[in-house]
Specification:
Elements: E1 2-7, H1 11-24, E2 28-34, H2 37-47, E3 51-55, H3 63-73, E4 78-83, H4 88-94, E5 99-104, H5 109-156, H6 162-172, E6 180-187, H7 195-212, E7 215-217, E8 224-229, H8 233-236, H9 241-259, E9 264-269, H10 279-290, E10 299-301, H11 302-309, H12 318-329, H13 333-350, H14 355-375, H15 392-432, H16 439-445, H17 450-461, H18 465-483, H19 489-495, H20 501-512, H21 516-528
Parallel strand pairs: 1-2, 1-3, 3-4, 4-5, 9-10
Antiparallel strand pairs: 6-8, 6-9, 7-8
Helix pairs in contact: 2-3, 7-9, 10-12, 12-13, 13-15, 14-15
Amino acid sequence: MCRLLIVDDEEIERGALRLLIERFIPDVEIVGESENGRMAIDMAETLQPDLITMDIKMPGIDGVEAVQTIHEKFPEIKFIMVSAFDTFDYARKVMRNGVKEFLVKPCKKEKTIESVIRTMEEVKQIKERNLEWKNMESRIIKSRSIMETEYVTAIMMNYVYDSDLSSWDDKAGNEKGPVYSAVIKLDLNKREIDLQEKKEIYGVLRSLCKQFERCMVGPMIGYQIPLFIFPDPATAHLYSIRTHGMLFARKLIQSFENQCPYVKVYIGIGSPYSKHDQYVLSYHEALLASGDIQGYSKVRYFADMQKSDKKPQQTFSREMEKSLIMALRKADKELTLSVFDQYIEQLFQNARFDLRVIKYELEKLFDLIVQMLNESGFSMHHVGDLEHLHSEQLIREFAKYQIVLLINQVTNWYNLDSRGNMEKAKSYITDHYADDLSLEIVAEYVQLNPHYFSKLFHERCGTTFVDYLTQVRISKAKDILAADLEQSLKEISIKVGYRDPNYFSRVFKKMTGLSPSEFRQTHSIGYFS
């Protein structure tokens, strides 16, 4: 529907034009009438029409000046100029200001209708082009966001190698300086929120992170959000990384809690690293720091925890915790057991063989491991209770047994659960290919993080999610084309999940080398021969 504003100082002329348009051009909505240039300028701002018919000779601000003023503010508005004088000079003044047609009073009905239809068609094309650009821009923004979360997830899951990360650093604007990680942890005070509210909270946090620092923000996993921060070299020398991170975290917490006062935010910050293969270390440090926040402080820097480790009352090494978790995530049994042996020896020594303290620290360690593995996409279960154990030997054996169980769970997850989930996902796609299906919907069905699911699907199935869904849909379309020669292509495209028949035809030809009509024709020849 094209929105039209009629501007003429003669009421009878306005009425005649309105009657003509309402009778012969129903696709035009007349949103208002104006009797002078000043009123037309105000109404253009209020009503935002697509097209204005503008009389040139009017008292006060004439049509030429009104067009120029409106065009400066709203260059998308098109004009049809109307005058009782066939004056080229008037036309020349305004033809570069969005004026598409020039009518001389008295205007013939046919010429007026043709002029409005021509201009309306141009308005329609501009709207379609603008919508296409907006959709493209939206897709680009969404793609960048997905790729960004893929980047962060890749580091967390140890998927990407040095050469891949270099290009991502360039996209982030990092100039080979130190990079550090932060983990945002949400506390809703036992308040339940739905998926939509969770998305809104994530959107606010992501926007604030981008506002305050150059960074890449990962997906929300549970109630935690990982990110990697690339300090600006121009200002990085003014602060230490610790100060830089603390300032960022405090600004983020204050701004977010002003917008969402019912959610508390805690932030752990990792150490800076310059090498790509060390970014994951900063993430693990930030994760550990986010789980160690106590008292009034809402921000914890990992290096501060390291300093406190030197105090006599501390009984374990943060670095060893980190190494243990990394080995577990890789399902490296030999390395995990080796690190755990070192860890438990140090724990017994530092705790001076106080079994109560040792059991307390081991419980904390196992809780942290299970939490971190679950938040990384694994499906882990809480380990057994050490409370009933009352000897050093039993504690050592039980703790090692728990570590072995965890290694086995991770290994099974890689080798069995993930394969089963991929089969479950493929079965769901086969049953729902005709629906408006997305990677996120299927990932939610198999209860996996979308980015982890995407990577796992590619690894296990040898193709991407989108390519697999396309293969299923085109295969079903071929079956229908072969079985039913009467159904229209539009009906078939909808039946296999494509709402746009033209897009369906392009995809079909790309996959098969034939258009749907050619495929049907080929089948028809074979069928009746």
